[in-house]
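Aim 2 progress update. The chain analyzed this quarter is reproduced below.
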Amino acid sequence: MATLIIEHLDARDLPDEWARQLAVDGAQKVTVRIETEAPETEPGGDPAFGMWADHPASADVTAFVDGLRRPRGPDVPAEGELGT
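Predicted structure tokens:
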């Protein structure tokens, strides 16, 4: 990421739209900071995203997450075994 900082810039040197948004007069001094942004990437473009792609648990993500959310422990009845 690159950054450009311009300090003590006369407001009259700003683009008109910027000066309107700041509501400054031409004699006022301003500081302008401009930064480049990292390009947005798709999740599949991240090398770490697919590191579990071949893991058996990732075949059915919904079932895997449901299993994580399911209560565990010796005193917890299994799904479908709740009495009424």
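Helices lie at 16-22, 61-69. Strands lie at 3-10, 29-35. These observations will guide the mutagenesis experiments scheduled for the next reporting period.
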